[in-house]
Amino acid sequence: MVSEQRVREICTCRFISNGDNRNILGPPGLGKTHLSIGFGFEVLAKGYNALFITSDELGEQLSKGFTKRHTIIFNEAYM
């Protein structure tokens, strides 16, 4: 469970100006997608870009990058 204080802190988007990312992990049924979409809307409302991908998609993209022997830069690939 995520505390209300933690949710409010993430919604300030300070982590972005600090150069950090947020990943939400856990078993099915906890509301990760719901929270992620809400955070994404908040980030967009503050003028930032947001990227929403599943862990399967992330793994696939990283695998392709390592196969091609170069690093994938997600900002260029998705935004």
How would you describe this protein?
The chain is an all-alpha fold. It has helices at 4-11, 14-17, 32-45, 55-67, 74-78. 0% of the residues are buried.
Give the SSE order as H and E letters. HHHHH
Mean pLDDT: 82
Could you say which overall geometry the principal axes of the C-alpha atoms support?
A: globular
Largest sheet: none
SS strand fraction: under 5%
In which range does the helix fraction lie? 55-70%
Q: Termini, distance in Å? A: 31 Å
- Give the helix/strand class: mainly alpha
Radius of gyration over all CA atoms, rounded: 14 Å
Catalogue the unreliable spans: none
Q: List how many beta strands DSSP finds.
A: 0
Keywords:
79 residues, mainly alpha, 56% helix
Summarize the structure.
56% of the residues lie in helices and 0% in strands. It has 79 residues and is mostly helical. The mean pLDDT is 82.
List the helices and strands and how they pair.
Layout: H1 4-11, H2 14-17, H3 32-45, H4 55-67, H5 74-78
